[in-house]
Amino acid sequence: MNAPTRIRPELVCPAGTPAALRTAVEAGADAIYCGFRDETNARNFPGLNFSPAELAEGIRFAHDHGAKVLVAINTFPRAGAAKLWHEAVARAEGSGADAVILADLGVVAHAAEKHPNLRRHLSVQAAASNPDAIRYWVETWGIRRVVLPRVLSVPEIAAINKEIACETEVFVFGGLCVMAEGRCSLSSHATGKSPNMNGVCSPPSHVLYEEDHGDLVAKLGAFTIDRTPKGVAAPYPTLCKGRFTAGDYSGHVFEDPVSLDAAQLIPGLIEAGVTAFKIEGRQRSRAYTQAVVAAFRKAVDDHMAGRPIAAEMTRALAEGQSTTAGAYKKTWR
Amino acid sequence: MSEQTTNETTKPAVVMGPVLFNWSVEEWVDFHARIADEAEVDRVHVGEVVCSKREPFWADRLPEVIERLQRGGKTVVVDTLALVTLKRERQIVADLAGLDGVELEINDFSPLVHLAPGRRFAVSPLVNVYDEGTLGVLAKRGAWSVCLPPELPITQVEALAAEGRRIGVETQVFAFGRLPLAISGRCYHARVHGLAKDSCQFVCNKDPDGLAVDTLDGERFLAINGVQTMSQAAIAVLDECERLVAAGVSAFRLSPHHCDMGAVARIFRDRLAGRIDAAEARSRLGTVGLAVPLTGPMMTGTWPVPTPRAAARG
Fold first, then answer.
1. ipTM tops the 0.90 cut
2. Do residues A192 and B301 make contact, with C-beta atoms less than 8 angstroms apart?
3. Domains of chain A in sequence order
4. CB of B150 less than 8 A from some CB of A
5. What's the pTM?
6. Which burial class, exposed, middle or buried, applies to A282 when counting CB atoms under 10 A from its CB (0-12, 13-18, 19+)?
7. pLDDT in tens, B126-167
8. Which strand (E) or helix (H) includes residue B245?
9. Do B186 and A327 lie within an 8 Å CB cutoff?
10. What value, to the nearest 5°, has the Cα angle with vertex A39 and ends A36 and A44?
11. Preferred mutation among A86, A188, A228 to probe B, highest tally of B CBs within 10 A
């Protein structure tokens, strides 16, 4: 159960590269999350992620600056290939990682058995969305922190925290999955590549822009995801943010092209017992990482010092995109 | 009380999955009565997987449906909800986990805290079982049947089926119907009708097979079913039957649609018994009154090909 005293929340920041790790640490991250340069992590994009040597070096740098490093090994192993995931866990521990972020039950069980002293966090990809599911992971596998799926409202998060014996981490900024994470095969359906199996969603390798009757058509695989008049910025064809028709409806069937900004909800989320705030975006630039981490560092510090969180603080960071508080504000209900 | 299916010499089981759509309670009861009397299936799943708001409509008819199916010689499996967040939903799951005399299929890990050690359970395709490690952990906890995720490539299905055979767990594939692809906290049926989820007027009941989602270029793509997103085409595992059975897959799941599901079951029974080939099965599936297009499964890399709606309608 959560202690009644208010604890300073941990700001967990993304690093897609060693340079981004150093940038995030210097911008005020309490913890960095990152992954190996292979299919064991859910941001398996070309040019991203860490070699074992880079990870060890990054962990040394973070520890020297008082920050933790959490290693995401959060895809689901191929049958017959779990060794790669097991080796990733061993390498994370050997490099001095403060925790691993895992999604697959088999990998969690392996880590619990072979690396009992390595702290285990449950990835959002495991989609533990209620106190009973979380209890299973905590009581059976010693999970110390659960990253909550982005389908919950703040009161629901508060209710969960009252009933569970581990920490919770929630996303506060960046890309927004509208589906329960780890339970979505839409990308797989359109391209054959999925977050669960390949660590990618709507991958750039399957994106195509075509001109048609004066429009720019954004395609994923063989499918039209959006269409914009020439001259208007064409959106990246993320499947669930596309425009489609359904019955008499035409438009964003699943979600508008928005990103998550829960900066204003920080006080409520702390009140709800959340331990850690996570910023999405291991695929983003160093400049972006620096700006977002610094802004959230200030937001958390302002709140802890009793100052209000500046309303416009994070607006500019969304880079022209609209933002939403997602499911946190219960608008989905 | 359930049929033996893990022995490699027995015939593969044909399983009627849970109704995923919002059918009226009368239709839902009638459907199960017909399946109880006529359908050549070994097992029938009941229970609400998609949306807890639908559950009160038929919850008090569940005992009668279970009894009817059992009288028809079918093993009954009760499914739990896929996405559990509310207190009421947790209570529904706890109650189902406490039911005696029926099998239970889990759709997330929350039922496990209610199941006594040694109590066996089945695992739905909405639970992530991608590798031998997870399969083994679940088997140790009491899983006797696992329906594999539909996005798994056939080589992975074969590897897991072999492992299932080795450790004595039935592996099952989703063999017929619109594929469940995603589940969300947001209701898309409510959204496209301009309604809030809490006052949805149960608009998903207008679409007994789900509502088709097309691209802006009029190509068939997905379908929505309340908070669930599905493939627009129904898949049919027909060409792969021998290969899957040889690998150790011992059950084939049919997902109920608004058509003659008894006929669908007979077609799969004939196909699995080797009485008809894939081409004949496909041609017979064209006569069951299914209102959605048919395609091959994801497991063989049959990604949907854009089909113009007008042409597809013929």
1. yes
2. yes
3. 10-176+258-329 (3.20.20.70), 200-252 (no CATH)
4. yes
5. 0.94
6. buried
7. 999 999 999 999 999 999 999 999 999 999 999 999 999 999
8. helix B241-247
9. yes
10. 75
11. A188
